[in-house]
Amino acid sequence: MSDLDLTSHAPLMVSEDGTIRIAGSRVNLETIIYHFKQGATAEQIQEDFPSLSLREIYGAIFYYLEHTTDFEEYAQRQEAGIAETRRLIETCLKADNGGDLRERLRVRRGQTVKQ
Questions:
Q1: What per-residue confidence (pLDDT) applies to 115?
Q2: CB 13 within 8 A of CB 63
Q3: Are residue 54 and residue 41 in the same domain, yes or no?
Q4: Closest CA to 55 of 12, 5, 18, 7
Q5: Residue 49: CB atoms within 10 Å
Q6: Residue 47 and residue 20 share a domain
Q7: Which of 28, 46, 74, 83 sits at a 20 to 30 Å CA gap from 18?
Q8: More confident call, 36 vs 112
Q9: Distance CA 46, CA 57 (A)
């Protein structure tokens, strides 16, 4: 019988806006996986993100490989949200030259503005 702990946990967290990030950093999971899909090794990814440990990078890759379908669905939802935000910005800029763009974006993100 082995005394090794065979459970593992990916070093990930979900931020308030629903973005999955490497725990303790601002680096999102999509960024790591994008580089991985482009053929970068964990060591090469770490060169671009030196604040991340190899354990964190390998953990993110492991999570992706174990949950590929779920990740791809999540990534599509994130892309749709980004596209919607871009459309909102363009609409606001055209409508009133960005006069209250900041307020509209805050409302869109569910934030309240205190003045």
A1: 43
A2: no
A3: yes
A4: 12
A5: 17
A6: yes
A7: 46
A8: 36
A9: 7
41 and 11 in one domain?
Answer: yes
Residues 8 and 59: their CA atoms lie apart, in Å, by 9
Whichever domain contains 54, its CATH number is 1.10.10.10
Name the residue among 11, 13, 6, 19 with its Cα closest to residue 53: 11
Domain, as residue range, for 24: 1-66
Beta-carbon-side half-sphere exposure of residue 78 (alpha carbons within 13 Å): 17
| Residue-wise DSSP of the chain | ----------SEEE-TTS-EEETTSS-BHHHHHHHHHTT--HHHHHHH-TTS-HHHHHHHHHHHHHSHHHHHHHHHHHHHHHHHHHHHHHHHHHHHTTTTHHHHHHHHTT-----
Q: Is the pLDDT of residue 5 over 50?
A: yes
Q: Which two tokens stand for residue 65?
A: 């490989």
pTM value is 0.72
